[in-house]
Amino acid sequence: MATEHNQDAQDLQNEQAEQQTQAETEQAEVTVEDLQANIQKLEENLKLEKARTANAVYEAQKSVERIQRESEKHKDTVLEKFAKELVESVDNLERAIQAATEETPVVEGVRLTLKSLLTTLEKFGVVEVDTTNGFNADLHQAVGIDPNAQANQIGTVLQKGYTLNGRLLRPAMVMVGQ
């Protein structure tokens, strides 16, 4: 009976060992499947985060470009306002030279100042509008008719015009032949 009882106990231990081994195998299989599912889920999350990062970098680059464009536009606006004010000084210096009745050292100083101012303006892109090649409505403002000028030709320049980096700063006020 003791042998039978030992045999039953041994059979019971073997059966429990088999069940434990089978449970471990099933647990190992489940764990591998779970790990594969987790890996796939993590890969999808990684792709999503990479896409978000790429989008954030793209948005940052676009913001930098937009800020640079706005900065350039602001700089151009400020330069344009400043140049318009300086052009008024050029007009005043030219009027002073025209009003002078005799050549004095003061008049010569005004001429040199005008020349220096025009040179500085040209360095920064301010150029006088051409009035020798006929009337151009984009660059000239006709304010009257000059009876001595040919048709569509500029007779008298009342006020010089200027461009700033190729853009019209102030049109030349002219009288045109009919």
Q: Biggest sheet, in brief?
A: 3 strands, antiparallel
Question: What are the secondary-structure elements, in order, as H or E?
Answer: HHEEEEEE
Which strands sit side by side, in order, in the main sheet? 1-4-5
| Inertia-based shape | rod-shaped
Radius of gyration: 44 Å
Low-pLDDT segments: none
Our count of domains comes out at 2
Residues in helices, as a percent range: 55-70%
Amino-to-carboxy terminus distance: 141 Å
- What would you call the structural class? alpha+beta
Q: Mean pLDDT, as a whole number?
A: 87
How many helical elements?
2
Relative strand content: 15-25%
Summarize this structure as a short list of keywords or feature phrases.
178 residues, alpha+beta, Nucleotide Exchange Factor Grpe, Chain A, domain 2, 2 domains, 3-stranded antiparallel sheet, 3-stranded mixed sheet, 6 strands, 66% helix, rod-shaped
What's the gist of this structure?
This protein is an alpha+beta fold and 178 residues long. The chain has two domains: 37-124; 125-178, Roll (Nucleotide Exchange Factor Grpe, Chain A, domain 2). It has helices at residues 2-99, 105-123, and strands spanning 126-128, 140-145, 154-159, 162-164, 167-170, 172-176.
